[in-house]
Design a protein that fits this description.
Number of domains: 2
Largest sheet: 5 strands, parallel
Bound molecules: calcium ion
Number of helices: 8
Structural class: alpha/beta
Low-confidence stretches: none
CATH class of the largest domain: Alpha Beta
Number of strands: 11
Distance between the termini: 24 Å
Mean pLDDT: 92
Length: about 220
């Protein structure tokens, strides 16, 4: 899953980025409203963590522009503990949820998981399909109830496919889940991690759709 962190405070930004990457999210960090706007126009994200008080362009302005473009990426706004008015304005401008600063890391991560779950159209916290189950909160994977150890990047390619059985994801879309801007991408990275997943979970779970990408069949 690829996240955009919008935060102008260097210390907070570094700390949150570290937490997100430790949880194996591919995360990009921008420090002002103009850069956030630019990133949101050019890149595909699964979720945005948006501070509202930003230089150059206010967070609310960025959010309104995003929704005016009919971009429905989940947005979690960050506000000060006592700033009830900001939370209301954020939600009314199209945010899906809010977190208060200073962050409680566990709460932040739980809200991110909940939003990602809802945006994938699921209520239940665990992905389960064809005997394979993934729990994003504990990062436990099982096949027919037996635990399997997946690397962070194997998880990153499997999760979006398992979240939407029957939907084809292109190699480019899967690359976006794997890497943030600063990572070097080898041209066969997606194939490598798909291969790893197949070795661990069975060769026929993920199907290659020639010329299009990959999918996990519905049935
Ligand atoms: Ca700020």
């Amino acid at each position: 899953m690829r996240l955009l962190l919008v935060e102008d405070d260097a210390m907070i930004g570094e700390a949150v980025l570290h937490v997100l990457r430790t949880e194996h999210y591919a995360a990009d960090w921008v420090r002002d409203g103009s850069m956030a706007d630019e990133a949101l126009r050019t890149e595909q994200y699964d979720l945005v963590l948006l501070d509202l008080g930003l230089p150059k362009r206010d967070g609310l302005e960025v959010l309104r522009a995003l929704r005016a473009r009919r971009n429905s990426v989940p947005v979690l706004v960050a506000t000060a503990r006592d700033a009830v008015g900001d939370r209301i304005a954020g939600l009314d401008a199209g945010a899906d949820d809010y977190v208060v600063k200073p962050y409680d890391t566990d709460e932040l991560l739980a809200r991110i998981r909940a939003l990602l779950r809802r945006s994938a159209g699921r209520g239940e916290p665990v992905f389960e399909h064809k005997g394979v189950s993934l729990n994003p909160a504990t990062r436990e994977a099982t096949v027919q109830g037996t635990p399997v150890s997946l690397s962070a990047r194997e998880w990153a390619v499997l999760e979006p496919l398992l979240a939407r059985p029957g939907v084809v994801l292109t190699r480019g879309q899967l690359e976006e889940k794997l890497f943030s801007w600063k990572d070097d991408i080898s041209s066969n990275a997606v194939e490598v991690y798909i291969h790893g997943v197949r070795k661990k979970l069975g060769a026929d779970l993920i199907q290659t759709v020639r010329g299009l990408g990959y999918l996990i069949p519905k049935q």
